[in-house]
Amino acid sequence: MATRAPISLGVFECRGMTTLAAALDAMGKAADVKLAGRHGIGSGWLTIVIEGATADVQTAIEAGRAATSGHGEIITAAVLPRPEAEAIEPMPHATQAIASGSAPGEAVGWLETKGVTPLIVGVDRMVKAADVKLLGWTFIGGALVHAVVSGSVGDVETAIAAGAEAAAAHGELFGHLVIEQPEPDTLHLLPPAPTGQERTLGALGLVETTGYVGAIHSADRMVKEAAADIVRLTIGSGGRVATVASGALDDVRAAVSEAVSRLGEVAEHNGDALITNPDPQVVAAFADTAPAAAHPSAPSQALGLLETRTTVGLVSAVDAMLKGSDVTYEGRHKVGYFLTAAVIRGELGAVNTALEIGARAAQRHGELVARHVIALPYAEVTDRLPHA
Amino acid sequence: MKSLGMIEVEGVAGIIVAADAACKVATVELAGWESIGGFTTVFVRGSVSDVQIALQAGAAAAGTITDHVVHNALLQPETACLDFIGFPLDTGADANPVDALGLVETRGYGVHVENNDRMVKAADVQLLNVLTVHNRVVCSLVTGELGAVERAIESCRDALGQDQWFMGSAVLSKPQVDVLRAFGQAPLAEGAS
Q1: Which residues pair with B130 in a beta bridge?
Q2: Per the count of CB atoms within 10 A, which of A185, A229, A306, A381 is most buried?
Q3: Nearest by Cα to A23 from A174, A164, A178, A186
């Protein structure tokens, strides 16, 4: 909550984090304004709210517009002179605390991609190409992901150029940006720092798909084809899920190739990559082993998966499956992009019957996206699945 | 076991309108709601016939502000079905009866900062909540006397009615207190930040 009534507010909304960071940094350099809040609403649409004297806010919003015109999608750029506090203070952007910014002393670089595969490849290239530190990465909706590195101006420029090139070669590069001397407020946009352990691995394999069912299918094929370990399913936004596997190079290559060749059976293939000797910073950020989730069930039981585009369709399907066949409900998971999935267990015949019944119910009340049965699921996959 | 009724729409304003209509027309309880992508679903429970009546009224009401409406009733739902209610109603949540509830739904958040300021300046209304679901859908909820809420919503329609991102608006007179409980506090959407 503001300690003094703001004289004026500036509102700037755009698509993508690199555009937002460029705008906010330009605002802080152009006028005496302070970041009052930020909020994201999915699909990569991000809003910042700044406060200051009316003339400063006007100057700042113009500077934000100018810094991003031609290479960014601006949704809203507006000045609110003397807004009513009661109209603004309960809003989500104003109720999340903004910590005081710290002076960085170093340059920062942003890399933003559509899908997580090009981002991971890009980050690996960045930290190998120059002496930079990965500050963090995160999803911002609509399958957009961004990562930030810091270091000397020269190192950050080298890293971002190399990372952008590598990302573009493995998928869609959405944006990149180098800020030589970032404003303290700009650093509020940094993604959370990696929490995993820095380790060395032989190779990292990535298979990216749309939907939970496709990702589990990939993980199942990968562990069955080669001696690769499933590290985690990285579930982002926009329905994108990357299955991350590690192991010796030949095993990981065989696992990725098998998963990709079979993906068409159940889901969309959005990307894949093989990273040899991933940098320990990349391992800490993207390949930290997911915590084991306990799904108590007999190991011999088959796994049934059903994914739809409506909640009504899925709930109707689950009700019909449990009534029509001898299966148990294990959990559900949402991966964005209107997708919602349910997981059931039982004997193979019962799971097949249930999925048949469930698919019909789902189609009647919505859109069926995927159904899949895994006759003999391996614990190393099911233990890493995030559904509750 | 009670019957379970579900109504699913695009955006969130549609299920707020549906929940209020459903709970007014029949003896059903509001069980909660769920959000996936930009679709939301409201769940009601009651006897088989009450749920049928509630669903019809709710779906018709939702249809006044959104095209996409799907609904279904499960006669004797399996317990697992209740697991899909992502935001179950907190019956102990604070909520005071209000004379009227106004809803404005658009894609985009920045426009709501401007718009909420406009509504509070245009009439004696209070901002109750701003709901962010997914897929850029944002819905502002204001309360006050019926006339004031109507004036506030009218001011939005004048300003935003032609905007490409405007989705819809509604005024509910004497909304059900459970509707205020269910939608009066913001559950932050996953993956939206």
Answers
A1: B140
A2: A306
A3: A186
Could you tell me if A361 and A316 are in contact, meaning their C-beta atoms sit under 8 angstroms apart?
Answer: yes
Measured between alpha carbons, how far is B172 from B22 in angstroms, rounded to an integer? 13
Q: What span, in angstroms and rounded, lies between the C-alpha atoms of A5 and B153?
A: 26
Give the Cβ contact number of residue A169 at 10 Å: 13
Out of A13, A236, A309, the one facing B110 most closely (by C-beta) is A13
Please tell me which residue of chain B has the smallest CA distance to A140.
Answer: B193
Name B44's bridge partners. Answer: B5, B30
Residues 6+ apart with CB under 8 A from B24: B57, B176
Q: Tell me, rounded to whole angstroms, the distance of Cα B29 from its chain centroid.
A: 15
Cβ contact, residue pair B127, A90, below 8 Å: yes
- How far is the C-alpha of A124 from the C-alpha of A6, rounded, in Å? 43
Side chain identity, residue A304: G
pTM for this predicted structure:
0.92
Q: How far, in Å, CA of B43 to CA of B178, rounded?
A: 12
C-alpha–C-alpha distance, residues A340 and A5, integer Å: 43
Edge-first strand order for the sheet with A269-276 is A229-235, A240-247, A203-210, A269-276
A305 close to A213: Cβ distance less than 8 angstroms? yes
Which of residues 32 through 51 in chain B touch A, CB cutoff 8 A?
34, 36-39, 41
Euclidean distance between CA atoms A330 and A348, whole angstroms = 15
Q: What is the DSSP letter of A292?
A: P
Residue A46, CA atoms < 13 Å, CB-side half-sphere: 26
Q: What is the pLDDT along chain A (388 residues), one digit of tens a residue?
A: 444 555 899 999 999 999 999 999 999 999 999 999 999 998 899 999 999 999 999 999 999 999 998 778 999 999 999 999 999 998 999 877 666 555 567 999 999 999 999 999 999 999 999 999 999 999 988 899 999 999 999 999 999 999 999 999 999 999 999 999 999 999 999 999 998 999 999 999 999 999 999 999 999 999 998 888 888 888 777 889 999 999 999 999 999 999 999 998 889 999 999 999 999 999 999 998 877 766 655 667 999 999 999 999 999 999 999 999 999 999 999 888 889 999 999 999 999 999 999 999 999 998 999 999 999 998 888 888 888 6
Query: Measured between alpha carbons, how far is A153 from A17 in angstroms, rounded to an integer?
Result: 20
